[in-house]
Description:
By secondary structure, chain A is mostly beta strands. Chain A has strands spanning about 10-15, 20-25, 35, 40, 50-55, 65, 70-75, 85, 90. Chain A has no helices and nine strands.
Amino acid sequence: xxxxxSPEAPLWLWLxxxxxxxxxxxxxxxGSAIEVGDTRITFADDIAYGHKFAVxxxxxxxxxxxFAETIGVAKRNIDVGEHVHVHNISSLRAGKx
Amino acid sequence: xHEFSAFEVDGRPGIRNHVVVLSLNSFCNRATExxxxxxxxxxxxxxxxxxxxxxxxxxxxxxxxxxVVLHPNVHSVLCVGYEPDSTGEFVERVKxxxxxxxxxxxxxxxxxxxxVNAGADKAIWMVIAASEARRRxxxxxxxxxxxxxxxxxxxxxxxxxxxAIGEAVDRIIEMGGTAIFSETTEILGAEHILARRAINExxxxxxxxxxxxxxxxxxxxxxDLLGVNPVPDNIRGGITTIEExxxxxxxxxxxxxxxxxxxxxxxxxxxxLYFMDSPSAASEVVTGLSASGAQMVLFSxxxxxxxxxxxxPVLKVTSNPRTVARMRQHLDVDISDVxxxxxxxxxxxxxxxxxxxxxxxxxxxxxxxxxxxxFAPIPVGL
Lengths: 97, 382
């Protein structure tokens, strides 16, 4: 794995520097905060284990990047610390009819 | 080099020594089950198919049951057929392809109970002959085919357990083995990465064509793939889109070039990495990988899918520490320390290869012991 990993027992996983989302390895509650590099991220939502949160602001229609690849597009503006999931991003491949 | 032993069956290494009682169609299931109940040491294979299928359904069914008979983990086969013509035709054809004992009984000759009596009389001697087969020492994975599958995926799968299986797949291929991955829906959104790894332009085109046909099937059925895949347990586990699931899924393919695209149940011709074009439901995929000759299936799981297979041991690997706590009885290799304490994927891959050698040598998997022997020979779906 590349990118940033929190030390010791990791609480989150940021795979690649170009990714704009990271993955929770803990259950975070809304309002709690972590330090990612020099940035302090305050969670805008509850983030369950394995779920994604934005580490950069993602504008509406902009690609959501994980594994250094596009995994979908934002349905609306997503702020740093927001839960990123089916409610605010959509697949570019599914439901093309 | 890992040391283990295997049976030799038609020049291929076998890691189990099954005596199979194979139902050739649904109303032979009863006789098949009763023979297997009467004769200890037999393995009954039953299913709801075998009559009047057409097209792709018939092709997949035939390749699957032929793959069972020829499988290196199978010592001998008693086919339970209904009438003489189709049964005789199948038995004669497979006998031309293998030196192993293959015999048959007919339900139409005196009814189910008489078929049970005749079949039990034959199966007894098959089991005794199988008990005399001996393993011999193996070095490396030459002649071995490994199926690779992920199921019950969550967000830990792509970043850790699939990636560690990818390390193991690389190691297996470097030791002369073959690996087959599958699930066309689950390369959707990652096909450009796989196509770049194809050995030539022709194979790259086959990868794109398989994905296009899969998307067309979804559209023709009026299905939004997002409603089908990721499935609800994937979404609960943090996977949002099919692209994200696919990018995680292909981590289990390692880094070697892709030799070819296989049909469901088709046997690879050479060593190396192959893609099998198939639907993605676990029992159906594992059945197809086994029919392709895979002696074992490596199965990466997040939330945990308990699926197994009657012929090929299914080795379960997870990297989710919560799943280890909840579903230990369905897991074989715990690599959750990749996420909890930073164990490298290479070390985790080594532990998977160690477990592969142990299971090849005869150690049972949790799927075998819990009796998960799912056999699903006609997969059509997404």
